[in-house]
Amino acid sequence: MQLTLAINGRETRVDVDPETPMLWVLRDTIGLTGTKYGCGIARCGACTIHLDGQATKACQLPASAAVGRQITTIEGLSATRSHPVQKAWIEIGVPQCGYCQSGQIMSASALLAERKNPTDAEIEAAMADNLCRCGTYQRIRQAIHRAAEIAQS
Amino acid sequence: MTHLSRRSLIRTSVAIGGGLALGFHLPEASAASIPAGSQATTAASGTEINAWIVIDRDNTVTLRIPHTEMGQGGATSVALLIAEELNVDWAGIKTEFADANRHLRNNREYKVMSTHGSQLVRLQHPHLMGAGASARERLKQAAAAAWGVPRSAVEAKLGTLTAGDKSATYGEFAEAAARIRLDEEPAIQTDPAKWWLLGKGVQRLDIPQKVDGSAQYAIDTRVPGMVYAAVKACPVPGGTLVSFDPDAIRDRPGILRVIALRAAAVKRDRSKMPEGLRVLEMGSDMQDAVAVVAESWYQAKTALDRLPIRWDLGEGASTDTASCYAHGHRLMDQQGLVSGKADPLAADLIERSSRRVTSSFQRPFEAHARMEPINATVHVQPDRVDVWSPTQDQSSAVLLVADQLGRDPKTVFAHTMFLGGGFGGNGAGGTAVTRQAAELSRDMGKPVKVLWSREEDIAQGKQRPLLVARLSAAIGEEGLPTALFTRAAWFSIDGANQVGPVTADYGISTMPYRIPHRHHERHNAKTHVPSATHRAPGANQTGFVTEVFADEMALAGGWDPLEWRLKMTEGMADWQLVLRTLKEKSGFRTDLPKGEGMGVAVVECYGTIAAACATVNVSRRGRLTVDKVLMVMDAGRVINPHAGAEQCEGSVCWELSHAWLGGLDLEAGRFTNTNLDTYNLVRMHQNPLVETIFASSGGAKWGGLGEPAGPPTPPAVANAIYFATGRRLRSTPFRDHDLSWA
């Protein structure tokens, strides 16, 4: 079925079963592979994207439910790694294997869009669904605080 | 093979946003960053000084990385080691992954391509630093010859050669240097005090690509004409395929074929392989499985979920976690294999002692659960085979695909990808998924990406062996142990005596403490569950056993646990350095109010001594918070403190995940908690603050840092829980224990 999706500010036409999760539409149909598969049940957060600005697990989002809404993936967060979260991530050197980091960054950037100076408790609540097997959590926390500073400077 | 034939009208997926994995570059990336994609070949644009170093006329220096970057900072470490000796501007270097095919073609030219065992810096530094030193001296020799001065009069610094008023770039003498052979290769600089680049701490090369989604992992591979496969092996590992009903999914969208994969090795004629490249008999780890091949992975996966399959579950179906534990504890009363030197007095001394300590321990199977699920893409063509695999050893990927297909390894090309975690699970080439992809690509005549679902990844992964142990000690006059008797049993596949470098009681039989009479035995119990090395192999299970028991021995003798460890390692300078530093920095104490506790532990692994002090809080109702883990590390020297500290933070989280929340549940031979809602790992709110201190003893020690901080973490936390609650934990996961106190 032909669907028109608004991805990273561009209208994109795809021919998929409307029940196909956006994760696979992004990765396999369109080729935006920055959004990652980790569990398929919305428990690891590797597939986090923004749906109308809200952090959303793409593995549980049917393509049909994304029609008419703004989808942002890690590739669309900025053109030049210039988003405050990306700057902070680079400055602090957060990623290790990096596989979960697209999702971490999308969750963190959605949080900062709502809360300019999140507390540790707010960070923990917003990031609770994002697993990192490398254990970069303390640097993620530090980088979110740093991103808040960068955003306001 | 059983096929479901169907018209295969495959639309070619052309990447719109992601590009092809092959040759994908980031022009806007900073100069010192490794390309996000993979290299099929490493054809030089400049002059190759040696296999690791290419210098262009314009003085651009490209360093080739023969190792895998899986988050451990390895690519950066390799570049640092070479750049230290070559003496080039770090900010200006370029890097690329080395070619595994060339490595094999040229008699293992890069010495070692495997990346495991925390050994990249620890064991590979001589030839990596040697490559840089040799190139530097040859550049100097070339300039010396041109300028008519002795080589010793030429200085090589930051890419420039100078002698008196003469000056030139490395690039100007690269061609001449490539032709020079030195009478004697230069020595490398191993004294950290004389390093100009190593030890200072640099940003890792792979960071920029990992914040914008451009880093290419094997799972991201997109090849024109590629089709996708989902696979399912028998839920009880080792079971066999009886039948399946492809008609049941015939009408599902996008399905191309349903294919049975058999465990039996394909017959092939190895004699046709050229001498020197002939593949050793590689044990195939392929299990009976069914593959659904479709136009997209989601179509393949959802169809596979609906496919009726009948399995013969085999012998494994009669075992579960409880039966393994019961068997393991029975073995504790039976004589086992002796590890190390036998001491027949140990058991007698304990038997006759009036102060005895005896404790039993058990720990379950654990999964790697790398964030990137197991996958591989293989493209079989008449004249060449391409492999995209999340392997820790590209050269093994070449060999196992050659083995599976009966091809000449010279025609097999492995593309080095970033790994979404390694942790020991992608080592040694024993990766069934790559064989599956090779089989399916040959069968389909197309490139095939095989991706295991998370459930398949955990159910069919190679697990950390389940462990049971019993330790007994006699406590003597000064409250110190006079004798120690230990037995440990692990459940390794088919009762293997060794998994990777370790045996069942590695870490127990090798613990450092000076006890006059020690006797250590081990049992290898059979299981159908495939085994593999996991981060910090051996020590990751036994560190908990030895270091909880160390606290028990100390307290039984009336000793403070940290003072006991200092006493028991007297005369061992590096252990003393680490433990004294821990004492000084941690403020360890045993008299905190109830509900609060500190615990210590110290374990040696891969040449590095790691000491931990954990601080915990346990509510009256038993809710555990791990506030902090202080790690003191002696790896001898540290080439990149930034990456080293990250590895310690990660190792703490890794082991805490297993010890606190993890544990695979085996029921009727199959694992039942196979996704991340039931196989629980530490999340941000559970992760302690980790502080890392390097207490480097220097000397001849080159220890690893990718793994050793893990093993002391669970016992430090368990020992802290004891002081907080009075509850002694001798099994994991801690979530199974009631930690409440009154």
The arrangement of helices and strands of chain A along the chain is: EEHEEHEHHHH
Name the strands of the widest sheet of chain B in spatial order.
10-11-8-18-15-16-17
Give the CATH class of the largest domain in chain A. Answer: Alpha Beta
Strand content of chain B: 15-25%
- Through-space gap between termini of chain A: 46 Å
Shape of chain A: globular
Q: Span between N and C termini of chain B?
A: 64 Å
Mean residue pLDDT of chain A? 97
Assign the CATH topology of the largest domain in chain A. Ubiquitin-like (UB roll)
By CATH, the topology of the largest domain in chain B is: Aldehyde Oxidoreductase, domain 4
Q: How is the biggest beta sheet of chain A arranged?
A: 5 strands, mixed
Number of strands of chain B: 27
Q: Biggest interface and its residues per chain? A: A-B, 62 and 69 residues
Helix-strand category of chain B: alpha+beta
Domain tally of chain A: 2
In spatial order, strands of the major sheet of chain A run 2-1-5-3-4
Which architecture of the largest domain in chain A would the CATH scheme give at its second level?
A: Roll
**Number of distinct beta strands of chain A:** 5
Helix content of chain B: 25-40%
Please give the CATH class of the largest domain in chain B: Alpha Beta
Query: Average pLDDT of chain B, to the nearest integer?
Result: 90
